[in-house]
Design goal:
about 230 residues; Arc Repressor Mutant, subunit A; Rossmann fold; CheY-like_superfamily; NreC/VraR/RcsB-like_REC; Response regulatory domain-containing protein; single chain; DNA binding; alpha/beta
């Protein structure tokens, strides 16, 4: 007798209730088991700690109650739940953000402007261990890789890209060490290495470069993502 295939367990995190409802409905109809839905990062961490989950579908920006947001949020989730596959589902698809997310190792990226079928395709691809970028995300990634000013970031490893992103968000070396669960001295050395690879002697030069090009990764620091969704 052939046993039933176990349903894929999915958690949805989005601070827009209607978006979360639409995702839940589509995933349920596709045969997935939505084991939890949350609109807040703090609640999400508690949910992930107590529920078995294969894939997290998360909005990139979920501000609220002083919780970590954007790039910080991804660093914390990735560190606490290293086996969790993350699909970023966001309205914000700036080329630098999409390219940086892909480079740091996010499993999937789908824009909220894409059809819901893209989300379902992404979920199935992530289920089989592949990565997936929607049509809109692929177009943004192409722009990222084609921009001569941004090609310097292409030489960074996933870990180095994570550090570069945290620095661009205005996060101190001490907080980066805490987020990545590393010694401050180790992060300091790695930060210097990252700046050197990018061609900057000082952090202020990296911030100025990001500001001049309008590079956005977070709602705080040099890249103000205040209009992201």
């Amino acid at each position: 007798m052939t046993g039933k295939r176990e349903k894929l367990k999915v958690v949805i995190a989005d601070d827009h209730p209607l978006v979360a409802f639409g995702l839940h409905k589509a995933l349920d109809e596709a045969g997935c088991d939505v084991v939890g839905t949350t609109h807040d990062v703090s609640d999400l961490m508690d949910l992930l700690a107590h529920r078995e989950c294969d894939i997290l579908i998360a909005d990139y920006s979920m501000p609220g109650r002083g919780s970590p947001d954007g790039w910080r949020f991804l660093s914390i989730v990735s560190r606490e739940f290293p086996d969790l596959r993350i699909l970023v589902y966001t309205e914000f698809h700036e080329p630098f953000l999409v390219g940086s997310l892909e480079q740091r190792g996010v499993a999937g990226i789908v824009s909220k402007s894409d059809e819901m079928s893209e989300v379902l395709t992404a979920v199935r691809e992530l289920e089989r261990g592949a990565s997936y970028l929607s049509a809109t995300a692929r177009a943004a990634l192409y722009q990222y890789r084609s921009n001569p000013e941004l090609q310097r970031f292409g030489m960074l490893t996933a870990r180095q890209m994570e550090i570069a992103g945290l620095m661009l968000c205005g996060i101190s070396g001490r907080e980066i060490a805490s987020l990545m669960q590393r010694r401050k001295s180790a992060i300091s050395s790695q930060s210097i290495k990252v700046r050197s690879l990018l061609g900057f002697d000082r952090l202020s030069e990296l911030h100025r470069f990001a500001s001049n090009l309008g590079l956005k990764l977070d709602r705080f620091g040099p890249g103000d993502l205040s209009h992201a969704a």
